Amino acid sequence: MPVLPALGGLLALYLAAPFVAGLAHIGLADWRGADWPGLGQATLVSVLSATAATLLIALGGIPLGYLLARRPARAMRLLGFMVQLPLALPPLSSGILLLFLLGYASPIGILTHGALTDSFAGIVLAETFVAAPFLIIAARSAFAEVDPVLEDVARTLGHAPGSVFMRVSLPLAARGIAAGLLLAWLRAFGEFGATVMVAYHPYSLPVYTYVAFGGEGLPAMVPVLLPTLGAALLIMFFATRLTTPRRSRLRPAEAASGMLPPVPSPAGDQPPKAFAFTLTRKLDGFSLDVSYQTTARRIAILGPSGSGKSLTLRALAGLDAQAGDRLTIGDQDWAKAPAEARRVAYVPQSYGLFPHLTAEKQLAFARDADMAVARQWFEKLGLCELEQRYPAALSLGQQQRVALARALGRPADLLLLDEPFSALDTPRRAELRAALRALQAQITATSILVTHDPADAFALADDIIIVDQGQVLQAGPVNDVFLRPRSALVAHLLGAEATAKGIVAAPNAIDIGNDVTLPISGPALRPGDRIGWTIAAERIRIVPSGELPAEIIAIEPAQAGRRRVIIRVGHAELPVVQAPDEGLCPGPIRVTLPPGAIQVWNEDETMALR
Ligand SMILES: Nc1ncnc2c1ncn2[C@@H]1O[C@H](COP(=O)(O)OP(=O)(O)OP(=O)(O)O)[C@@H](O)[C@H]1O
């Protein structure tokens, strides 16, 4: 569309035109008659006062920007609004307000004998007032860009909040803050309105310019403009460099396998530690109330999206410890310990690698990192070649390994893994699952894995906690929960596609209708009870020698060239995944349903639970 470039071009032309017009006056200027000492003095005053004001602004503005970015409370929003007000005020009005505060007749003016007006200090204070919002806004945006997960991870690596700020938040926000500081300096250097009201003397450069213009008119202005233009060009050059995205000097991420090499040696022979927790949280629109106790060393927390899994993990890590928490591991009570004091190895969903540190430096980041142990993990996880890479140059699998090595490189009693495979494709997922299983066998820490995939839980946990809407639906050893889910919902969360109903015919057999009785494994059931049941599609075998009569009622194409066959057995309609077989067609067949694969729950008890 030609209108857009035309409109943009016109404005750009207008912005450039005064500079061009100024060029024409260079030859006409009275260079000899210029008041160079006066101009030099005013320039010095402006450079020094702008620098002092910028230092003051940095001292308060950086922490303020951080608070505004991290604390969403209403009081903070009000504070944010207030500190930006000077931007909206005409500078002369700002000057008048400052005179109310600092002028001769004000309490502060009386106390300081007027030292804060018509003085260098007055210039600094006026400049600070009008220029501070530039830094505060830049710092707030820069800190808001820093992923809070990185700060969480740093705390679980033993760093107290002050150290997290200095080592993670500040370095990551540094470019934005530096740009804000340059702009604040420039604004302070060019400040006129508030300054002329608060401190007419000593002359700052803008006040000097105004006075010179009043006395000698436009022809004398070209030499006066020189320092201003020079400072503006210099600062804008640096500010532009800071705000231009840096081109990565890193090597691109290789598509190399993210596989953890299997690690052979078994975990120590130490008995697993007793582990118990009760955690409650009341959030806007969501309540969490979970508790469990076990002596198992590998636990999975399984639930659908938004069920409270990550909140539980964060609470275990101590990232938002609250008064009512209960958390013991072995003989230690961690409930009141802050995150940095807990012995946890926490790997969040996004892995939480610090973008400004190489893989090697991530490893050394933990406050109490045992570098010998960390290096061992580095080697075991096949990371030696990647030591000098930044996270941006690592594949997802490699990032996961670095995050694991970093977490394991310090003493930990709990390994907390939040959806460790969620970013990976299916084959990589299976590889890493196997490798993580090997890793679990090597560590003595209790591992807690958050997942929404039952396959992860079966592979990597002895106990499972099933959560939904912030509540524990069922918890216990994986096999027990699998064979006796408490409800159809639990069975679905464990992967059941279709469920059916029946009646308990004998302690280990169920009547599923049409005179079909199904033998089952697991704890005895009470004859006569109404039950729900299911079986995973891949566990059903269609074979001529099958024990049960069934009927094929539909055949549908499925992924990878396979077929999904819907069978009726008893009153149940169940899917079966089959390799292509020309012989199969709708009609009677025989099937085998292994008793150990059948999940059963008591419908009457499920109703009572509701
Ligand atoms: N700081 C917060 N304030 C208010 N609600 C929150 C906060 N953090 C999380 N929630 C809410 O708590 C609920 C549980 O969140 P959580 O991150 O624990 O879910 P999840 O089970 O881990 O989900 P997913 O599998 O999608 O990661 C969600 O509804 C979420 O919106």
Automatic annotation (TrEMBL):
Which key words are in the record? ATP-binding, Membrane, Nucleotide-binding, Transmembrane, Transmembrane helix, Transport
Q: Name one GO biological process term.
A: transmembrane transport
Q: How does it sit in the membrane?
A: Multi-pass membrane protein
Which InterPro entries does this entry report, sorted A to Z? AAA+_ATPase, ABC_SmlMolc_Importer, ABC_transporter-like_ATP-bd, ABC_transporter-like_CS, MetI-like, MetI-like_sf, P-loop_NTPase
List the record's Gene Ontology CC terms alphabetically. Answer: plasma membrane
> Domain named ABC transmembrane type-1: which ranges?
43-237
Q: Which residues form the ABC transporter domain?
A: 250-494
Q: Which PROSITE patterns match?
A: ABC_TM1, ABC_TRANSPORTER_1, ABC_TRANSPORTER_2
Under the heading Gene3D superfamilies, the entry gives: MetI-like, P-loop containing nucleotide triphosphate hydrolases
Span-the-membrane segments of this chain are: 45-69, 81-105, 120-139, 176-200, 220-239
Q: What is its main location?
A: membrane
Q: Is this entry keyworded Methyltransferase?
A: no
Its family remark reads: Belongs to the binding-protein-dependent transport system permease family.
Check the record and name the PANTHER family matching this protein.
SPERMIDINE/PUTRESCINE IMPORT ATP-BINDING PROTEIN POTA, SPERMIDINE_PUTRESCINE IMPORT ATP-BINDING PROTEIN POTA
Q: What's the protein name?
A: ATP-binding cassette domain-containing protein
**Source organism per UniProt:** Acidisoma silvae
